[in-house]
Amino acid sequence: MRKTMEVMVAIDDSDESFMALKWALDNLYSIGGVVAEWNQEGGMLMMVHVQEPFHQYFLPAGPGPAMESVRKAQEESTAAILARALQMCEDKMVKAETLIVEGDPKDKICELAEQMHIDLLVVGSRGLGKIKRAFLGSVSDYCAHHVVCPIVIVKPPKEHRK
């Protein structure tokens, strides 16, 4: 019996994460436009979205309507991101699940990949230069050094790099 491949794609609101999803769908889940055999036999694509923790201390008014409004906006944004990602999967006839977790994206992605026994992690790269990457940090760079499974980092085309 053939083992199915467990693939995880990290999704956020960036174009680069959707480029990574498109790459996975085009290169791992279809061959010449035909759904890959291993996908038909139960291979599932897991899309994970990591929300930054909600910090109450950013709002001087404390708990109340303002905080609830921010929380609701975050939920709506997450729902829109995942709906777009799920539609891309549906268009390619790929079975997919979504998972929303809260925390530091680079840590959570690596933790989930290990806990879920992921065979391949696919992430996008913003194409930051060395200086910006040093100051801003890079989720893809961190994952490349810490994740327990193979990783594919999908870089944006040269004209889109920052």
CATH architectural name: 3-Layer(aba) Sandwich
**What's the end-to-end separation, in Å?**
45 Å
Give the overall shape, derived from the CA principal axes: globular
- Assign a percent range to the helix content: 40-55%
Major beta sheet, specifics? 5 strands, parallel
CATH topology: Rossmann fold
* Total DSSP E strands: 7
Number of domains: 1
Annotate the secondary structure layout.
Blueprint: E1 7-10, H1 15-28, E2 30-31, E3 34-35, H2 37-40, E4 45-51, H3 65-91, E5 96-102, H4 105-115, E6 120-124, H5 130-136, H6 139-146, E7 151-154
Parallel strand pairs: 1-4, 1-6, 4-5, 6-7
Antiparallel strand pairs: 2-3
Helix pairs in contact: 4-6
Can you characterise this structure?
The structure is a single chain. This protein is 44% helix and 19% strand. It has 162 residues and is of the alpha/beta class. The strands form two sheets. A five-stranded parallel β-sheet has the order 5-4-1-6-7, with helices on both faces. A two-stranded antiparallel ribbon has the order 2-3. The relative contact order is 0.21. Helix 4 runs parallel beside helix 6. It has one domain (7-160): 3-Layer(aba) Sandwich (Rossmann fold), CATH 3.40.50. It has helices at residues 15-28, 37-40, 65-91, 105-115, 130-136, 139-146, and strands spanning 7-10, 30-31, 34-35, 45-51, 96-102, 120-124, 151-154. Residues 6-155 form the UspA domain.
